[in-house]
Write a structure and sequence with these properties.
- Helix content is 98%, strand content 0%.
- The protein is mostly helical and 112 residues long.
- The relative contact order is 0.03.
- It is built from one helix and no strands.
Length: 112
Amino acid sequence: MSALQDAFSSTLSSRYSSSSSRLDNLDSNITNLENRFDREKGEILELIDRRGRELRSMLEAFKIEFEHDRKMRVRREEEMVLQLAAHEAETAGRLEEQERVREERYQAIKVR
């Protein structure tokens, strides 16, 4: 019976040692994965922050460019309004001149 107990004890000790070694490996793997996850989490958060800053910068540049373009468009429209007003005044002046000349000719023909 002693030999049977020794064999059982030896087998049990061997399996315990093997299980303990595997548990140590699993614990080490879990620790490595936790460290990796923490590192990647930090990298992802940094990436998100960096992209957020880049997008804010791009948005600010777009706002500035958009406002510049808007001001340029308003200025061009004002210039066009002034040109149209000048053209209208010039055309009205020529029309009045033509009417005056026609009226003078009509009066000159009428007097004859």
